[in-house]
Amino acid sequence: MSPSAQPRTGSRQIAALALPALVVLAAEPLYVLVDTAVVGHLGPVPLAAVAVGGTVMSVAVWFGTLMAYGTTGRAARRFGAGDRPAAVAEGVQASWLALGVGVLLGLLGVLLAGPLADALAGNPETADAAAGWLRIAALGVPGLLLAAAGNGWMRGVQDTRRPLVIVLGANVLSALLCPLLVYPLGLGLTGSAIANVTAQSVGGGLFLLALIRETRHLRPQPALIVRQVVLGRDLLIRGAAFQLCFLSATAVASRFGVAAVGAHQIALQLWFFAALVLDAVAIAAQSLVGAALGAGDADQARDVARRVTIAGGLAAVVFAALVVAGSSVIPGLFTDDPPVLEQAAVVWPWFAGLLPFAGVVYALDGVLIGAGDIAYLRTTTAAGALLGFLPMIWLAYALDLGLGGVWAGLALFVLVRLVATVTRWRSSRWVVVGATR
């Protein structure tokens, strides 16, 4: 039965795609949270070093995210049109692109670890520790991007079981290695970096093996790779706006002291964790909206959009309630340093209050990405960064407003994107049917 002949999408099908995606999305940030908790008990300087090094590595994560999202949308449209081999072919070429970009970024990370750490860290001790961590962690970038490409095409063909097994297995292995390497073996930050590389390399290798088993047509097709790069340029620009914001936020937080950047690291990693967990609904939207539009069913695409928007908002409200309930406990899981805990208390109301609005934004992002409406997302995300986030956090630095000012910038960023995505969703201008857009 072709996808277009299947029964109409309902809440159960959304849940069937979203729940496995939730585990996949949560696995990496859960490992990062474990890593942050393990390193946090080494002291404030190692915690700040991981904050700086992790921010640099987030550039690679950004490349992986845009690669996965772009591949999902393209593969889903072809799958919806009844052409699974063409959907898998998108994964093959995306994997070649991932390997090339991953090797390049890994080499740059190793070579530029020192200058990057110096630029972001607030003091020489933090910079030196961050550079040492980054030189090792950068070696995992090729595996990270291969895993992203694999996730992308598998989501496009609505296969969420294999990504679940691969990602969960790799990250559980690394989560077990991290405390072992850091404490009993006495490797400290080096152990943390090795555990990161292990998870990313094992995961990437397993996704590559799954692709080899799926198809014999594995040769690179430069024309298709170039087309993917061109089609992904709007995702790249959109992702650049995110990275500019978060790199600037870490740089500004670092200027407020070691305790401030340590608290910012804890809150930011929890924010990323919440974002990726809530993105499970958006992943289902990408796959189902893309498939519906590829099959020519505009009404089904609109129905999926409505359902995932409601689901994303409700899930975010539940998450926000948990954050509020755990305000006196959660920060202490990551550090016992009193100044860091004091700074975390400044961030917490912003963190909890923004989540319900962010849940709606993430869901609608998934709808528009699945529909291939990336140019609109590019423009509105850049506007949110340039008109909201960046002016506010640099004003916070100039006026010495502390972490509250930094997170006020994040609030403006979310607000601009909320207004933009809801307006687009209600207009239906994103509904364009066909195997390609």
Written description of the protein model:
This protein has 437 residues and is an all-alpha fold. The chain has one domain. The protein is 83% helix and 0% strand. It contains 15 helices and no strands. The chain has helices at residues 11-40, 44-80, 84-111, 113-120, 124-137, 141-156, 161-182, 189-214, 222-231, 233-255, 258-294, 298-325, 338-370, 374-398, 402-427. α2 (44-80) runs parallel beside α6 (141-156). The protein is globular, with a radius of gyration of 21 Å. The protein starts with 10 loop residues before the first helix and ends in a 10-residue tail after the last helix. Residues 1-7 have low confidence and may be disordered. Keywords: Cell membrane, Membrane, Transmembrane, Transmembrane helix, Transport. It is found in: Cell membrane.
